[in-house]
Amino acid sequence: MTYQSNMYDSHMHTTLCKHARGPLSAYAEQAERRGLRGITVTCHSPMPFGWNPKARMTRKQFPQYLDMVAELREGFAGRVDVRLGLESDYLPGMESWLDELHSRADFSYILGSVHPQTDEYQAMYLEGSNRLEYEKSYFENLANAAESGLFDCLSHPDIVKIVHPKQYRVAEHMVTLRRVLDRIARAGTAMELNTSGLNKPYPEMNPGAEILREMALRRIPVVLGSDAHDAHRVGADFDKALAQLQDAGYERVSYFIDRERHELEISAVFLAELQPRLV
Length: 279
Hints:
This protein is of the alpha/beta class. It has one domain (about 10-275): Metal-dependent hydrolases (TIM Barrel, Alpha-Beta Barrel). Helices cover about 35% and strands about 15% of the residues. It has nine helices and nine strands. The protein has helices at about 25-35, 60-75, 95-100, 120-125, 130-150, 175-185, 210-215, 240-250, 265-275; strands at about 10, 40, 80-90, 110-115, 155, 190-195, 220-225, 250-255, 260-265. A seven-stranded parallel β-sheet has the order 1-2-3-4-5-6-7, covered by helices on one side. A two-stranded antiparallel ribbon has the order 8-9. Helix 5 (about 130-150) packs parallel to helix 6. The radius of gyration is 18 Å and the shape is globular. The protein starts with 7 loop residues before the first strand and ends in a 5-residue tail after the last helix.
């Protein structure tokens, strides 16, 4: 699908995270082909204490990351609006570290992530607990992240379902989820609809339709992200995501520029897609 609108893809990575592929310029080129107005690069943040080192940039690489995005922004000026973002992992007790990290650059967008599939998270929460308790810890930490005030948006907000994909049942968590979503709504933090979930062991977007409907009831803003680790994924399945938002009761989709939230009418995005593209 291509667009003639102000759509942004607000979640993608660089090779500094050690599990993304290809030059960053290819991501911007794909965004241009899809007719997106812009992209926000959100590579995995450095973390203290050697936490999860195989899936993120190091502290020493942080300046390199800033330079990479600045160079891309300059190179695609007038073609694709390239924005500097960051995907920062949240765990209770790391608030001061993250607050200082976020002050080191003029970020346009900060994603807050809880990654329950990592060895470090599982050592903290899975050992000595059962599956349901572990999954509940994840949802509780999403609310804690929102209430920290550190983040514009919460990424892939049911990714815990990939840890035990054959056993996970969202119905088992609806009481917890409704309480958690109430907390997130009060905090005023947006939540992401992440299309990469279609390619994961539990093959549906993050979050699934049941959670998305509960988010809509609470008027929690939603930002679209492809979570691209390869250029061909930029903007992928956004048509399905927009349709899913409408099915859940949403009329608008959000994106952030300079830490300020903006909205687009979903119907206008679909209408723009039908108009002939100018060459």
